Amino acid sequence: MDDQKQIIARRIKELRLDKRLTQKELAKQTGLSVSSIIGYENGLREPNSKAMAALERFFRVSGDYLRGEIDRVTFHKNSDVIDNVLKESLDFVSKKIINTESDHTSSLEGVRLLINYYLSLNDTGRTELLKRASELTQISSYTDMF
């Protein structure tokens, strides 16, 4: 087993055990097969991009973390910053969506889709998305002039 597969195998297993899940439960919750989970954890195979995205979303970690490019301490330090920014962004977006739509069910669905989209982005994509969200807060200052 090469180093990359070994690191990914160890990280997936650690994350799964942290959540007290069996391999079968992880497979069900991520939409991956049990044999895939077993293969990843035993270092027999490496997750493809679709599987990596599913694991990243489920465990709320980055691909960098799963591949061992950053350690657990660095990841947790960065995740606190990301969580705070995400919370602020979601608060802003949810207020905008709820204030502009009368159907709250579709509002909540919009927020859910936004969260899923955000979590699927890499670090650069998240940074760019947050910049754009910040820029959107300035729109009202321009529309008030009319």
Keywords:
about 150 residues, mainly alpha, 434 Repressor (Amino-terminal Domain), 9 helices, about 0% strand, elongated, disordered C terminus
List the helices and strands and how they pair.
Elements: H1 3-18, H2 23-30, H3 34-41, H4 49-59, H5 63-66, H6 72-100, H7 104-120, H8 123-136, H9 139-143
Helix pairs in contact: 2-3, 6-7
Q: How far apart, in Å, are the first and last alpha carbons?
A: 65 Å
Class computed from helices, strands and strand pairing: mainly alpha
Q: Major β-sheet, in short? A: none
Number of domains: 2
Shape: elongated
Low-pLDDT sequence parts: 142-146
Average of the residue pLDDT scores: 75
SSE succession = HHHHHHHHH
Description:
This protein folds into two domains: about 60 residues, 434 Repressor (Amino-terminal Domain) (Orthogonal Bundle), CATH 1.10.260; about 70 residues, no CATH class. The C terminus is likely disordered. It is an all-alpha fold and about 150 residues long.
Concise description?
The chain contains 9 helices and no strands.
